[in-house]
Amino acid sequence: GPKVLQIPSHQIIDMGQMVTLNCDPVSNHLYFYWYKQILGQQMEFLVNFYNGKVMEKSKLFKDQFSVERPDGSYFTLKIQPTALEDSAVYFCASSPGHSSAETLYFGSGTRLTVL
Amino acid sequence: QQKVQQSPESLTVSEGAMASLNCTFSDGTSDNFRWYRQHSGKGLEVLVSIFSDGEKEEGRFTAHLNRASLHVSLHIREPQPSDSAVYLCATRNNNNAPRFGAGTKLTVKP
């Protein structure tokens, strides 16, 4: 099936530093999503992005978070500065459209460890 | 905002015995529902999508939706040890991204 690739699979960073998580979505998809999953806990929605804009975000999408997809390359999640509570697995997803009938395809996640 | 509750938190079944998982949602605004599976350390794999009341079968996986009771279930026929994973229920409507339940950890014993 369609593949979403996330790079890197694991990143370790010191608190206060900046980190960028990269996502290579399915090639013809237009809608992009980030979810956060703390170990052993629920998958939580962060943000939905389309046509260069944030369409929807949750209260977990703090001011330190930003997303972009410059020139159709990677869809990125940037955290600046990082905090200890940002340690989690971050999942990227993409879909062709945004109707509820569309299926989201997920990557395997990036495990972020903030020390 | 839609709340999604899954039960049980964990379930152990023997290989070949039917496994049944439950998901309830907080209100009737959702118009479609999906079951995903997440093997340890992996991403999410979509199993079955359902949009209207009744049943939807995809191979050994059958979803059953009852909007009136705000409930959607997943039944796994002839489960195998390779089906051991966390099963996630997700709901959404046209205005929002999918929201997930906390998951049911399924263990299938040989």
Account of the protein in words:
The complex is a heterodimer of chains A (115) and B (110). Chain A has 115 residues and is an all-beta fold. Chain A contains no helices and 11 strands. Chain A has strands at residues 5-7, 10-13, 19-24, 31-37, 43-50, 53-57, 65-68, 75-79, 88-95, 105-106, 110-114. In chain A, strands 2, 4, 5, 6, 9, 10 and 11 form a 7-stranded mixed beta sheet that branches. In chain A, a hairpin with a 5-residue loop joins strand 4 and strand 5. Chain A is globular. The N and C termini of chain A lie far apart (36 Å). Chain B has 110 residues and is an all-beta fold. Chain B has strands at 4-7, 10-14, 19-25, 32-38, 44-50, 54-58, 61-66, 71-76, 85-92, 99-100, 104-109. In chain B, the strands form 2 sheets. In chain B, strands 2, 4, 5, 9, 10 and 11 form a 6-stranded mixed beta sheet that branches. In chain B, strands 1-3-8-7-6 form a 5-stranded antiparallel beta sheet, with no helix packed on it. In chain B, strand 6 (54-58) and strand 7 form a beta hairpin. The mean pLDDT of chain B is 92. The interface between A and B is medium-sized, with 23 and 24 residues.
List keywords for this structure.
heterodimer; A: 115 residues; mainly beta; 7-stranded mixed beta sheet; 4-stranded antiparallel beta sheet; B: 110 residues; 6-stranded mixed beta sheet; 5-stranded antiparallel beta sheet; 57% strand; globular
Oligomer: heterodimer
Secondary structure tally: strands of chain A: 11
Mean pLDDT of chain B: 92
Radius of gyration of chain B: 13 Å
Give the class of chain B from helix and strand content and strand pairing: mainly beta
Order of helix and strand elements from N to C terminus of chain A: EEEEEEEEEEE
Query: What portion of residues of chain A belong to β-strands?
Result: over 45%
